[in-house]
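User: Here's a chain of 248 residues. Predict its fold as C-alpha cells.
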Amino acid sequence: GLYASNAVDIAVARGTDYSLNTKKAVEILGGIERFVPKGSKVALLPNSQHNNPGTHTKPEIVRATIRLCKEAGASEVNCLSWLPRKAWEATGLAAAVEEEGANLKIIDMKDESLYKTVAIPRGKAFKEAKIMMELYANDVFIDMPITKDHVGNKFTGTMKNLMGINFQAVNMFFHTGKFKDPDDIEHLDQCIADLNTVVKPTLCIVDATEFLTTNGPFGPGKIIKPLKVVAGVDRVAVDAYCSTLWGL
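Assistant: Prediction complete.
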C-alpha cells in the first residue's frame, strides 16, 4: 500500500548554508531525478513579493534548485511570475535566475488571453480558475514559496503561493472584503483550497530559513530564523509542518 514504501514525505535540512540545505532536502526525498526527467521543461514559482527581509524566497535557494534541475538534464528552467521585473531585481532573484541560465518569464497579470480557463469541479468558493498558460508549457512544476505571516489568513506557504499563477481578477476575488471579518478570511482560505484541487506541483521547496511572523506578507516585521529548507510533495503536510515553526 501507500505507506509500505520507505519514501520520505517531508525533508528538512537546517543550517546557515541555504544552498546546501536545498540540495540536502531534495537528496533526502530521493534526489532531483525523482522529479525532473532528463530533457524536461521545468517551471519554478519562487516568491519575489518584496525586498524587505523575510518576505521573499532566498536567491541561494532558487540558484541551488536551478542547478539541481540542470544537473538532472532539464532542457529548460523557467521562473514564472506576474510580478514586475523590478521586484525580481530588488530581491536579487533576477540575477540568481539569469546567472544560472534559467529564464525569467514575466506574464502580464491583466492580459486575460495569456491565462487558461480551468474548471474546478470540487470548488466551493469558485468554480473556474484562470491560470497562466505558460505553466502548461512545462513538464515539471516546482512550487517555491517562503513561509511567512499573512495579514488575512495568518499563514502563507505552498498552497497560498499558487495565487502567483492566477489571473489578477481572480486574485482580487480571493481578496474580497479586505479581511475585516472572519468570513473574508474563510473565503480566502476556501478559494486557496479550491485552486489547489486543480493545480498539483511536482515538488515543493520551501524557504523557512528566515521569515516574517508579523506584518506579512510585505513587512517589515518581526523575523525568526529557523534556518530550514523544507521539501516535499504533499502541500498540506508541508504547510502543516511549516506552520509549527512559529507555533501556529
